Amino acid sequence: MSKFSFIDLFAGIGGFRLALERVGGHCIGFSEIAPDAIEYYCQNHGDNSSMNFGDICGLSDLPPHDFLTGGVPCQSWSIAGKNLGFDDSRGQLWNDALFLLKKSRPKAFIFENVKGLADPRNRKALSYILQTIKDAGYHADVYLLNAFDYGVPQNRVRIYIIGFRDSRYFERFQLPEKVIAHRTLADTITDMKFTDVFRPSVYRGKQSLSANGQGMNDYFLFNDLRGGLTTVHSWDIIDTTEKEKRICVLLMQNRRKKCYGNLDGNPLSLHHFQQLDESICFSDIEGLVLKGILKAEQYLFEIDKAANVLSEGECNLLSSYTSKPVTIDELKSDRDLRIAKVNVVNLMQKLCNDGVAKCIEIRYDFKNTKISTGINGVNRVFLPTSRVYPTLVASDTNDFVTEVQVSGISNEDYKRNFIEQVYLPGNYRRITKEEACRIQGFPSDFKLPSTRARWMKLIGNSVAVDLIEKLAYRVVKTGVFCESDYDGLKPSVGLRVEQMAFDF
Q1: Between β-strands 219-222 and 380-382, what pairing exists: parallel, antiparallel or unpaired?
Q2: Which of 313, 366, 377, 480 is the most buried (most CB within 10 A)?
Q3: Least confident of 67-76, 159-168, 221-230
């Protein structure tokens, strides 16, 4: 296989570099601005700071090279961010990357980004990126790939824009074949040791990040907002009566109905509960509040339009809400209030304290309403038999693993055994730094900071190394760097932007 030179933009800790060096690449420089990333990039790859081109925004050109790579910062397009796209300064970094692509004219390139860039809301942005690439004289396509489908033990969906200066090689490129992974989490996380608590049965969990036909998974989700046979709710792990459990289920089943409000999840009043079950009384609801399962929320307000303690800004913001009672979800949905970054809950509390507003209806919702937070700091616990781990992200997650294998003779038994043998005794833990490296495709001895927040940010912001290696290998096999590499593979058809706009 021929040798080729490459430049690593938005290099992070060098996931692209590891992958390209495995297929014959030689790095001649990288661009990175985060101090932690630069330090550990140099430590692990044996470079000094002179190899770093620095801030991409200040570059007018790049040295001659064959292959350009880059994981362009993704926060602007991620659903976890504010979805500002090109209105975010980080979104503008695409323009800098494409400018350097046009100026330096490498033979091939790969850019990686979050799947949010392929969402319909970002269709114009992605079309602009692809058109700019075309205007620069390149032939490119965009692929939406899950690293798990290519042997990576992680559910990591990203888009990859892969392009060639010469159309011959673009037409030859094909994606690597998908891999049916037979490894389990216990195989990947080599520190795991099985503890067989129960005999295996037909109810053993199956690999999935969604329920299979039996509703059984190889992980348990801690969540009060959704049902599921492997979902653990607050009322499963807090001492509650059968009636209290029934009230919780009623709220879970009804809070998303539009008759109770316009939000994705709406609190219910005591009157609403009594419409669903006339035996429910205030003491039942209050008991669940005292147990930390439900919370009371001020929901419906009257605003005194004659009040003279409002500031001019408050008067302007609330001018349309003084003629009739207003709900908290109306205020939360108000575009002007959102643009002004007004915390409407705090605002209404202030107005009530000042005598300007009066709450005329209290409603009740679950205390734990943020799905990713889970319950008591636990979102998901993965069993050793799982073949996939969730996406590693820079901010870390409330996901855990257990070394205890769980089974049961029924759905209820399976869940109860998990609670009794894993959750209550605390037989679960976060993945270690070495395990995160292996999941992402880095060597387990890759040098990283000792502080979890720091190393998790570096790993979560990186790429799935093994998938990048497979993609880079297929780029090389087109013969773009040396015709003798070409193996005559038939071209593949990628997911083009027109298709993606309808598929997602």
Answers
A1: antiparallel
A2: 480
A3: 67-76
The structure's pTM equals 0.82
| β strands within 18-103, DSSP E | 25-30, 67-71
Burial environment of residue 312 by CB neighbours within 10 A (0 to 12, 13 to 18, 19 or more): exposed
pLDDT at 306: 61
Q: Would you mind telling me the total number of residues written for the chain in this entry?
A: 504
The domain limits of the chain are: 4-180+443-503, 192-233+375-431, 239-366
Confidence class for position 290, pLDDT limits 50, 70, 90: very high
- The per-residue pLDDT for 211 is 41
Q: Which two tokens stand for residue 5?
A: 């030179």
Which residue is associated with the tokens 């008591």?
376
Active site residues: 74
Which of 248, 243, 241, 257 has its CA nearest to residue 227?
248
Average pLDDT over residues 387-397: 90
CB contact set of 40 (below 8 Å; sequence gap of 6+): 13, 447, 448, 449, 458
The CA dihedral of 464, 470, 471, 477, to the nearest 10 degrees, is 160
Torsion of CA 207, 373, 146, 185, to 10 degrees: -40
The 10s digit of each residue's pLDDT in 421-479 is 999 999 999 999 999 999 999 999 999 999 999 999 999 999 999 999 999 999 999 99
Does the domain at 4-180+443-503 match CATH 3.40.50.150? Answer given as yes
Structural contact between residues 300 and 359, judged by C-beta atoms closer than 8 angstroms: yes
